Amino acid sequence: MRTWGPLAAVSLGTFMLLLDVTIVIVALPDMAAALHASLSDLQWVIDGYALALAALLLGVGAAADVFGRRRLNVIGTA
């Protein structure tokens, strides 16, 4: 069981990331209807989401080097 723990933790984190991206994509038609947004506006939503994710990924990676990967993984999935 000890060897399955890290695999389960990484799989959970990956699943949460994919679920989060899917939620944004599924919400796009409702956002377009409610905000009367064009296709270009919706592309900006996706690009902004990707940019924010990339910026946070860099910051959290640096924090993981300082505080420890395991600790930040536990905090992130909690």
SSE inventory with pairings:
Layout: H1 4-35, H2 39-67, H3 69-77
Helix pairs in contact: 1-2, 2-3
Task: Explain how this protein is built.
- With 78 residues, the chain is mostly helical.
- The chain has one domain.
- 90% of the residues lie in helices and 0% in strands.
- Helix 1 packs antiparallel against helix 2 (39-67) and helix 2 (39-67) crosses helix 3 (69-77).
- The chain is elongated and about 50 Å long.
Give a quick set of tags describing it:
78 residues, mainly alpha, 3 helices, 0% strand, elongated
Please give the domain count: 1
Count of DSSP strands: 0
Q: Kindly state the mean pLDDT as a whole number?
A: 87
Low-confidence stretches: none
Largest sheet: none
**Tally the helices: what do you get?**
3
Binned strand content: under 5%
Order of helices and strands: HHH
Tell me the structural class: mainly alpha
Determine Rg (CA atoms, Å).
16 Å
Helix content: over 70%
Tell me the span between the first and last alpha carbons.
21 Å
Choose one word for the global shape: elongated
